[in-house]
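not sure who needs this but someone in the group chat was asking about ParB/RepB/Spo0J family partition protein from Mucilaginibacter aquariorum so here u go. i didnt clean anything up, its just raw.
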Amino acid sequence: MSTEKRNALGKGLSALLNDSPNVNPNKNSYSNPSNPVSELDSLGSVNEIKISEIEVNPFQPRTEFDEQALADLSASIKLQGLIQPITVRRVNSHSYQLISGERRLRASKMAGLKQIPAYVRTANDQQMLEMALIENIQRENLNAIEVALSFQRMIDECSLKQEELGDRVSKNRSTVTNYLRLLKLPPTIQASIRDGGISMGHAKALLAVEDPTVQLYIHQQIIKNELSVRKVEEMVREIQKAPVKKEGKQPETLSYQLQKVEDDLASKFSTKVKLKVNSQGNGSIEIPFLSEDDLGRILEMLDW
């Protein structure tokens, strides 16, 4: 492996920002907004660009921005100006597309700025996506689910393997894998991770359980009883020790209507309900429980 290639690994965003070979590398001062600059002159430099000419990044992975934090940044920009330029790519002579810095762009608008300092780069759509994702991930201001979704997008849309992705974001493969596994959890649990209801440690413990119904039950107990990560790990170990019931003769295949009844009951009781019906129409309903507390919850729902 050449020295040049080794040095490129792990650089993340900076390794992706490849400007035109015609750019003057020593040109780092702000361009005068009153004097129009050519495309070649503006590439790689910091230029004052009209905010009205900047389009938001369609590949932005962040979905939420803290309004109070934006207001604080806006107040700082009013007082001292924007210290760190945003990064854009040129669309045409009077239009740019944001690559990174949407928070700074929003705060600058709130501050009433008409122009903003910006690096002008060249980038195709794939590079745009990579830059936006990597810039946010490296700033560590995404929640765990947003990071996981960002990783998955880079794999799907940029055709990266997990090891290549790890090089891009300066994380080892096991870390990348742990984030991606979060997307296998039920949507309710993913939402709880996103909103800060449970931690990454809780989520990793839940991933040791294969049954989504059991995952949801443990998640419910975490929220209800404010369980620590260690307590959840102990609960998972106890559940895994429980003997697995071996099935004898396979029950009759349920009709669509009965399958729907089974699904509705499972949803109602937040546990895996088993509906058994034989060829004569006789049968039973099994509602498993994982602890005495869980049994009490089910009995309460049955008005027992």
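also The chain has a mean pLDDT of 76. if thats useful
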